[in-house]
Each structure stands twice: as structure tokens, then as C-alpha cells.
Design brief:
Number of helices: 14
CATH architecture of the largest domain: Up-down Bundle
Helix content: 55-70%
Oligomer: single chain
Number of strands: 4
Number of domains: 2
Order of helices and strands: HHHHHEEHHHHEHEHHHH
Length: 421
């Protein structure tokens, strides 16, 4: 009889807490629905329309991660929120916590790969570049490495006994199970994951700082030599040097990135009237010419003491400028995506630090405080739905493609209605 009363009271307390957690459920539901639709749209557009964009591989994997978060992780999280005092399914808890850790860390790894890809294209245009095939292989390897890192989550998570404040009753929640509460393994594991994640974020920030510095350098150089460029219709010699040196790479790489800072151009061999001449000083970046033997037949012999001229048409110059503008926009877009990921996860990390630094941090909270705590503890889910919104705001091509798909859908609906009539 006493057991029945305890179970009944525990069910009442769990139901009351579930009602208080309705704002969290609504938040998770909106994030899940919006993210599922948005990431499905992103996956369709980048998989079937932007087939020649090199960064699309990373964006596709990122959309797949966010989609799985919205479809799998968020529904499981809603179940845990609605059973905060009376969670009973150990296996469901293990899958929920492991899935959250897997998608979050994997998303961080893909964003790190994007930062490296942007760095290579902007700051090291003459060196190694990540091709589509390499990008696929890298994302697959990252997935298995992430899985190997987070497998202890599946082992250590389960049912944890919690004391309900003011009731003298013990409930169960989805967390580190009782068998590992007094063990040092959970603390060591979470500390290592925290260090790894912090290092990843630090590397990404450092990469984008280098990229920003490089972009600023080219902008200032273009402004400083703008009058000279306008007078002779040519580009800066160093920038043209990078363009010419990448001719063969464009021919070798079938899916070259159209958004690189120093895109590839073809040297005009004709003597048409729209050709313009660009003069190079042979003392300028002479070491960069050492690897250009394969281009000697096209651009002529390189002399250390005499300047030489390369013929570039005005159409090619305009194409270079457009692609460089696209490169800066693409890099800026990736930077915003990375920043949103960091901002979305920041409240979670702050609460985790406070929880470990303060004794009984959650236990001393009142029911309303637990709701606020639970809301911000799940802020990182927001990162799974903001990327499609960022693309629609900052990527003009993505926005126009969405409008075109909406118009086509509207026309199909109208035609279907006319046929029904």
C-alpha cells in the first residue's frame, strides 16, 4: 500500500514537472519541425542543383547531421523532458545521450574541416586543396573517429536516482547512471571531451582570423592600387600570378571550387582587340614561379631581370572579380555558420561548468529554476535549425533557388486544382 502511494505521488510530481516543462517541449518541437524542413531543403538544393560547388560536400554532411538531430535526437530529448522524475527506459536514455554527443561533436568536426578548406583556398591557393573526393573521405573518417570518442556515453548513461526537493521521494532521470556516480571515469571523460571541443573551436577561430587578415590585405592592396588598375585595365600582379599558376589545377580538378579567393583563369593566346596587357616585375614573388614549368609554354619564359606581359581579356578580368567576390561571400557565410554553432552551444558549456563547480547546483533549484536551467541546457539544439535560415539570408543563390522551387510548387498546385475542376 505504501509503495502504491509512493508511486502515485511520484507520478503526480512527474506530471506537474512535465507541465512546467511545456515551454521546453514547445521550443524543441519548433526547432525539430523547422530544422527538418529547412535541412531537407538544403540537402535537396546542394545535392541536385549546386553540383559543381566544392564546399557542397561539407554542407551536405552538415545538413545530414542537423536533419538527424531534428528527426532522432530531439524526439528522444522530448521524452526525457516529459519524464524528468520518472524515467524508466535505460536503453532509450543511452541512445538519447549518445546521439546528442555524436551529432554535436561531429558537427564541430565538419565545421573544422570547412575552416581548413577555406583557409587553404584563401591563404594557400598554390598548395594542396581539398577535392570533392577528399572531402567525402574526410567527413566519413570524422564520423568514425567521433563515434570512437563518444562510445563511453553509451556505457555510462542510464537511470540516475534523484532526490525530489521538499518531498522526501526518490525519482529516476536520464543521466550518468548510479553505478558510475562515485567513479572518476565520467568526470575524466567529460573533461577530455570539453578540452577536445574547446581546442576545435579555438582552431576554427584562429583559422578564420588568418582568413580575415588575408582578405583585409587584398582589400587594402586593391584600394591602394585601384587607380593604377583602372588606368591600365589590369589586376594586381600578385593576384594575377596566383590566377595564372592555377591554370593546370583547373584542368586537373573536375569539380573545382568556384568560390576560391584566387580563382583560375585561362590565358588568352589571341591578339584580339579586347586584350589588355598586365606588366609584372620579375623581382615580385619570384619563388612562386619555381613550380610553374608546365605553364612556361603558355606564359612565356620567366626572366629575373626583365618584366613580361600576360594577355587577359576584359571578360576574363570581370570573371575573376566576380569569382573573388563570390569567394569572400562564401567564406563569410561559413564564418557565420560557425559562429552560430558556437553561440548556440555557449549556454550549455557555461551551465556544465557551473554544475561541476558548484555543489548541488541543480538540486537547490526550485521547479521554475529547473525549467530555466533545462531550457538553456538544450540551447545547442538551436544550431540544428539556424543554418537554413543563414543560407536564405546571406546566400543569394540559395535564396533565389528557394523562390524558384516555391513558384514551381505553386504552379503545380494550381494546375492540379484546375484539373480537378
Amino acid at each position: 500500500m505504501e509503495f502504491d502511494n509512493t508511486s502515485s505521488r511520484l507520478a503526480e510530481l512527474n506530471h506537474a514537472q512535465a507541465l512546467r516543462n511545456i515551454p521546453i517541449v514547445v521550443y524543441l518541437g519548433l526547432v525539430g519541425i523547422t530544422g527538418c524542413i529547412g535541412n531537407s531543403l538544403v540537402f535537396y538544393i546542394y545535392a541536385s542543383i549546386y553540383t559543381k560547388l566544392n564546399s557542397r560536400i561539407f554542407l551536405l554532411f552538415l545538413a545530414a547531421i542537423d536533419w538527424s538531430t531534428c528527426v532522432i535526437d530531439i524526439p528522444l530529448e522530448i521524452i526525457t523532458v516529459l519524464n524528468e522524475y520518472n524515467f524508466q527506459d535505460t536503453l532509450l536514455c543511452k541512445f538519447s545521450r549518445t546521439g546528442n554527443a555524436l551529432t554535436t561533436l561531429y558537427a564541430g568536426g565538419v565545421l573544422l574541416a570547412i575552416a581548413v578548406d577555406r583557409y587553404l583556398k584563401i591563404c594557400r591557393p598554390l598548395g594542396f586543396q581539398i577535392s570533392n573526393r577528399t572531402a567525402k573521405l574526410l567527413c566519413i573518417v570524422l564520423f568514425f573517429v567521433t563515434f570512437l570518442l563518444i562510445w563511453p556515453e553509451f556505457v555510462m548513461n542510464g537511470l540516475k536516482t534523484v532526490v525530489i526537493k521538499g518531498e522526501g521521494l526518490n525519482g529516476t532521470e536520464c543521466s550518468i547512471e548510479d553505478a558510475y556516480q562515485k567513479s572518476a571515469y565520467p568526470t575524466v571523460f567529460k573533461f577530455l571531451i570539453f578540452i577536445l571541443f574547446t581546442a576545435t573551436l579555438s582552431i576554427m577561430i584562429f583559422m578564420y582570423c588568418l582568413i580575415g587578415r588575408k582578405v583585409r590585405f587584398f582589400v587594402l592592396k586593391n584600394e591602394r592600387r585601384g587607380s593604377q588598375s583602372k588606368s591600365n585595365g589590369s589586376l594586381d600582379s600578385t593576384e594575377n600570378l596566383y590566377d595564372v599558376s592555377n591554370i593546370k589545377r583547373l584542368q586537373r580538378t573536375e569539380n573545382s571550387n568556384a568560390a576560391a579567393m584566387n580563382e583560375y583563369v585561362h590565358v588568352s593566346k589571341s591578339n584580339s582587340k579586347d586584350n589588355v596587357y598586365t606588366t609584372y616585375d620579375s623581382n615580385d614573388s619570384i619563388d612562386d614561379f619555381k613550380s610553374m614549368d608546365s605553364q612556361a609554354s603558355e606564359i612565356g619564359a620567366i626572366e629575373r631581370k626583365r618584366p613580361f606581359k600576360i594577355q587577359l581579356s576584359t571578360t576574363q578580368l570581370d570573371q575573376i572579380k566576380r569569382k573573388r567576390t563570390l569567394a569572400r561571400n562564401t567564406t563569410y557565410l561559413m564564418f557565420i555558420v560557425t559562429s552560430s554553432f558556437i553561440i548556440a552551444g555557449l549556454p550549455y558549456f557555461i551551465l556544465i561548468i557551473l554544475n561541476h563547480a558548484t555543489d548541488h547546483f541543480v538540486l537547490n533549484m526550485n521547479p521554475g529554476g529547473r525549467v530555466v536551467y533545462g531550457f538553456f541546457l538544450r540551447s545547442y539544439f538551436l544550431g540544428a535549425t539556424v543554418n537554413p535560415i543563414i543560407y536564405s539570408i546571406f546566400d543569394r543563390r540559395f535564396r533565389h533557388t528557394c523562390r524558384g522551387l516555391a513558384r514551381n510548387l505553386k504552379l503545380r498546385i494550381c494546375r492540379t486544382e484546375q484539373l480537378d475542376v
